[in-house]
Description:
Elements: H1 2-17, H2 35-46, E1 53-55, H3 58-64, E2 73-81, E3 88-95, H4 98-119, H5 123-131, E4 133-137, E5 140-146, H6 150-159
Antiparallel strand pairs: 1-2, 2-3, 3-5, 4-5
Helix pairs in contact: 2-6, 4-5
Amino acid sequence: MKKRGVWVLAALLLAACGCGGPEKDGGAKDPEVSLSALFAAMEEDCGWEEGYMTAVEGELLEEYYPGLSGISTVQLLVRVPAMSSDVNEIALVRCETGEDAEKAAAVLQARIDLQVDGGAWYPETQAAWEKAKVLREGTYAALIASGEHQDALEELFASQFR
Length: 162
């Protein structure tokens, strides 16, 4: 009887603190990451001045990332250099579900593939796009294409989930 009481008490404690149960999509709950704060940290780390990067929205978003606007997102932030031949393209997405994040990651990868397969015309930009990556963490997905800052930006994204 005492053992059963201990197990019931343990179960009640776990339920009260929200521990031990699966979250949506059967996994642990994703941390709350502000994508605008993450991008601000990226800007600061890279030394990008205000106005260097511009938002990609509306029709331009659909042109760059066909299908992304049709995926249910909680947060979406896409930035490219306003006037530069440098490769510094950042797309950060938080979706409703892991399945939607997987779809978003496929759209982001298609952008990389397009650039590698001829979209990036110059040898320097071609080399930068070949190093670009799509990263996934739960309901989050990111495209990071930044020749000079690639490794640092990938690490900054990954650090949000540790």
